[in-house]
Write the structure tokens for this entry.
Amino acid sequence: MMAGELDILIAMANPANSEVLSRVLTAAELGFRMCADIDTLIAEAGGGCGALLLEAEFLSASALKLLQTFINEQPAWSELPTILLIRNAKRQAVFAKSAPLFIPNLTLLERPVSSAVLTTVLRMSLNMRQRQYDIRNLLAELRRANRTLEKRVRRRTAELEQSNKNIEQFAYAASHDLREPLRVVASYLDLLQKRYKDRLDEKAGTYISFTVEAAERMQKLIDGLLDYSRLSTMPADQTEVDMNAVFSEAVANLAVHIRDQGAAVTSEPLPVISGAHTQLVQLLQNLICNAVKFARPGIVPEVRVSAVRQEQEWLFSVRDNGIGIQPQFHERIFQIFQRLHTRNEYPGTGIGLALCKFIVERHQGRLWLESSPGEGTTFFFTFPANDSA
């Protein structure tokens, strides 16, 4: 605590009263400072004090206004105790009604007042002021701790971002470098199977077929991982994108798959948003592909894409009439390499929905689903509304 922060500032209209109070406070061993006018009082109080001890006659209308302004400008933790000495009960009653409106932490004492009563009130006021200073110090300590924590969080965030960037770059490089040797392995196995098929027994041919299929699955996994890593490393240059064109392109890319499944894929009119065109095509393509793939046996797959405006964002939905998803898997399926079915049931790598989540979040959106087994699935995702489009 700074020196003088618990001093009592005294301002009297009558110099004789100042002398009396000086003797009383000195005897009580209370620190104080005398102030000749309102400007001096406010200047001294601005440097820190414990309480104000004022004579009612000292507070002219202009002085009261200056004091009120000073008190209103105090920080939230500060309620400066003010003791006002009133000459008579009638005047005290008037002040009791009006003064608290201007001076919140006010104590009125009628003169003459005994030294014992005055010093007791002053000590209580100083104790109150001490608690206020304690709160001030705690708040300052809390602010320092918050600044330190913010620095640590920023440093840790930067470290995590760099670590994630390194991992993404490694995954991209590893996936890219693995493609060529795997392609060579698959090619030689295929060549071996074709050239020597008449010389191989049935088991050998089966083993080679299994190996080729495994190599092809690995190739698809690496391609998926490469796509995922590429999204992390390439800049997402955003332009105005017509989602109707995105839908048409995604459906065209899936034309063979949709035809083979006999699926009906339609959309309502879609908006123009800000985004990366290629990534948005991949998003819709993955969601539509899943909707067509996970169809119920004997049921014609139906997929409907739509969008509605909700305040500052667009809510998109991709709805199907497929097999549905149990609630306990609604979060898990967005994790990379997570699959709910065997490859014999439904082919895939377990990367598609992780890619979708990554793309949506990169566009400051959210992705989730609603589904029940046997009742189809609806994937929802949001994008910020592009009001300039």
